[in-house]
Amino acid sequence: MFEQTFKNIDDVLWKEAGCTTELDYTEQTSWMLFLRYLDDLEASRELEAELDSKSYSPIFDKQHRWSSWAAPKDADGKFDHDRALVGDDLIDFVNADLFPYLQGFKARADSPDTIEYKIGEIFGEIKNKFTSGYSLRDALELIDRLSFRSQDQKHELSHLYEAKIKNMGNAGRNGGEYYTPRPLIRAMIEVVDPQVGETIYDGACGSGGFLCETYEYLRAKPNLGTADLRTLQERTFIGKEKKSLAYVIATMNMILHGIEAPNLIHTNTLTENVMDLQEKDKFDIVLANPPFGGKERKEVQQNFPIKTSETAFLFLQHFIRSLKAGGRAAIVIKNTFLSNTDNASVALRKELLESCNLHTILDMPGGTFLGAGVKTVVLFFEKGEPTKRVWHYKLDPGRNMGKTNPLNDDDLAEFVKLQSDRADSDKSWTVAIEDIDKSSFDLSVRNPNAPEEAPLRSPDEIIAEMKKLDEESAKIIAQIETML
Q1: What sequence ranges are listed for the domain DNA methylase adenine-specific (predicted)?
Q2: Which of 33, 61, 240, 393 could form a disulfide with 428 if both were Cys (CB 3.0 to 4.6 A apart)?
C-alpha cells in the first residue's frame, strides 16, 4: 500500500541538491516520518482522552503541529494549497522556527523516558538538508499520505523502513556499519531465547535491528497480558549508540515496530568505566554486533582491565561485565579474535573462557556483511560458569554471498536445529576445554569432519614453481621463433 509512496519520496530526494547518498535519504525521510507519526499519536491520544472524558494536553502547540505547517487541510479535509508554506518561506520556517522549537523539548521534558525527551534528542542531532522549499513541499505531501493508525499500517511501514536501512547498508562501507543481516539476528535470538520480563541490551545498537527483532520475537509469544505488553514497552529494551544518524534511525525503527518511547541513549558506551558497573547496570541478555576495525584513544582504554585500541575487543569486555550472573549473550566479532596472538587478544579469550561458558561459536561465510570485507563469527555464552566444551558450527550456504545472494533464514535453519542439543555433523564439532592450548587460548579449530585440505605451500616453493614455468614458457617461445 505504501511502497510506491516511499519510492516517490526517494525520487524527490534524488533531485534535491542537499541530499547525495542513501544515508541522506534515510535521515531526511526519518525526521519527516517521525513528525507524521507523532501527529497520528496525538490524534489517538486525543481520542482516547475524549472517550474517557479526560482533558488532553497536546505535545505540540498549534503552529508547530503537522496539520498546521506540513499538511494544512480545508473544511472538506482536502489539502489547502492557500495555507501551505512553500519555497523559501517553508525552508525558513523549518530551519529557523520548527527545528529550534523541537530541540527545546529535551530541556522541557519531565524525564528521559518520555516521547517529549526523544523529540528533543532527535532534533538536537539532525539537520534539515533540503535546500529547495518546493522539493520539501513535495516530500511532505507524500509523507502525509502515510498513516500509523492501525497495527497493519505500522507493520507495513516498519518493513519499508527496514528496506531503506538495508539499502543504506548496501550503499557502501559507512552504511554497512548500521546493518546486520536480519536472518542472522533472528537465528541469534532463537538460540538465546529471550523471555518476557528479561532485560535486553545492545550497547552498539546501530539501526536497532537486534532490539526490534527481539521485540517481534517476544510479541509473538502466546497469551501475553496487558502487564506483559507494558513490560515490553517500558522495561525490556535498552540501547546505546554513539553516532547521531544511527541513533535517529534506531529510534524511528523501534517506534515503527511498536515501541512508543524507545529507551535509547545517545552516548559513547566505551567512555563508561567497566570496573564501576553495579548490579543495577547489568542485564539478562546482550545481543550485539559492535563496530570492528575502529581505534580507541588511550583515555578510553583506561576504562578497561585489558588495554587494546581495537573497538570490538573493548566492547566485548563491556558486554561480559554488563551481564548479570546467569545472563546470556550472542555477539558478532571478527574471526581473527579466535586466533590473534597479541597479548590483549590472548588475555580476552582467557577471561571469556574462565568467566563465561562459551558454549557455541558460529563461523560465518565471507560476504555476510556487505562492504565490510572481513569474516566474522558469533560468540554465544552464559555468564558465571567457566567453559567446559565449545560447540563449533561452520556455516556453508553452498554459494557465494553478496548483494544478489544475501543471507536468508533457510541458510541458518540447520544451525539453529543442531544447536539445541549441540549435535556433531559434517559442519559441526565439539572441542573440550582441556584440548585448548592454555598458553594461547586459541579457539580457531579446523573442522575435523571436513575433507582434508591440501597443505599451504611455502613462498619458496611457489617461487621455485613460477621460475620453472617461466623456463618452460621461454623454451616454447624459442621453438616457435625458429619456425617463423
Answers
A1: 153-453
A2: 393
- Tell me which residue has cell 531503506: 164
CB 132 within 8 A of CB 86: no
Q: Write down the CATH superfamily of domain 3-149.
A: N6 adenine-specific DNA methyltransferase, N-terminal domain (1.20.1260.30)
Cell output for 13: 530526494
Boundaries of every domain in the chain: 3-149, 178-435, 456-484
Would you say 26 and 165 are in contact if contact means Cβ atoms under 8 Å apart?
A: yes
pLDDT digits (tens, 9 = 90+) for 132-182: 999 999 999 999 988 877 777 877 888 888 887 877 765 544 444 557 889
- Answer whether 199's CB lies under 8 Å from 238's CB: yes
Q: For residue 19, which amino acid is it? A: C
Cα separation values, 135 from 98, 143, 146, Å: 17, 12, 18
pLDDT at 455: 53
The identity of residue 105, as a single letter, is F
Strand partners, 49: none
How far apart are the C-alpha atoms of 137 and 475, rounded to whole Å?
74
CATH topology of domain 178-435: Rossmann fold (3.40.50)
Amino acid 87: pLDDT: 94
Q: Residue 310 pairs with which residues in a beta bridge?
A: 295
Cα–Cα distance for residue pair 23/174, rounded to 1 Å: 9
* Tens-place pLDDT, residues 346-405: 999 999 999 999 999 999 988 787 655 678 999 999 999 999 999 999 999 888 877 778
Over residues 241-254, mean pLDDT:
87
